[in-house]
Amino acid sequence: MDTPFSKSTVPQPLRNPLDWLQVSVMDGYIMREILMPFLFGVGAFSSIGISVGALFELIRRVTESGLSIGLAMQIFVLKLPEFIVLAFPMSTLLATMMAYSRLSADSELIALRGCGVSIRRIIAPAIVFSIAVTGVTFAFNEMITPAANYQADITLDRALNSDRPPFRERNILYREFEDIAGDDEQRMKRLFYAERFDGERMYEVTVLDYSQAGLSQIVSADSAIFDIDEKTWDFYEGTLYAVSPDGSFGQTITFDTQEIQLPSTPFDIANRTKGDEEMNIAEASRYLDEVIMKTGDEKEIRTFKIRIQQKYSLPFVCVVFGLVGAALGVRPQRTGKATSFGISVVIIFSYYLIAFISNAMGEVGIFSPVISAWLPIFLFLGVGVLLLQQTSN
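and the corresponding structure tokens:
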């Protein structure tokens, strides 16, 4: 039986160290073999993901909360990019494993090896394909998925809570911390509390100032507004109490209007802010510096840093899975598509189990955010390189 590697199209042995950069008939053939399983995987994995992660919840909202079918379909479409992105790495693993397993089962890899083509050269198309998918994944994560997730959440909030404003209405509490010179500990610098917020003005506001290593000032006002342009707070109808080092009240000032330099964080906390899955890297980094870091909550800071690192690391799972899938596929074996799918599921489950454990270790402070996000990738990259080395030998 004729194969795509007939005499006229069989790649010649490598004579130049840069020959591997050239696109040959073999490269195009292997790329086509990878593409169809990849598209199948994207459809299958994203369908499973969105069914479990969004569809069932939307159906429940339609039947129990009165969400209209039209809005449910709109939210469903907006949630699709999130699950398509998650399907890209898994589909890369499935596609490379299925493609090379098929070539191995039909002895086409043996023919290539007989012509002097090395294993590394044979899997080069899979690596190039994986890098391309990595770029697409990064683009989705930065430009499409965050905006779609935010719009989906806003649409759902408006549909189910049309009578409730998109901000925290009561009990806005913010604690600002600062580092102690020569010490790893932090101390509270300022405590801000507002009883009520109407979306623009806060009412019954109290500020306790500890910036002088002790309670030095108390501000109590009927209301306060944050001036976005001037980056200051305007307090109305209040009293300022100066506290002496011995704890007694010193000077007391009653004011109609008082401008006070305070961070905007309480205003940011009261307003609806995007979740980390609704931000791209630039937005998440800015929110970390301007809001999260000022809260002094170490666990929240670590968690948010991990989420930012995961935005960098997730696309590179495609390259790792592409290498692992290709290294397993080129091994001498005769496995069908069902077997390849089963092995892919086991590898995917193992990866995300390790990723979950690594994430938990990062959140409790055992791992740094960088290690927490990148450790699973480097572990599986090592597995892929080891498998490739064994097969090459």
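(Above: one complete record from the training split.) The longest helix spans residues 119-160.
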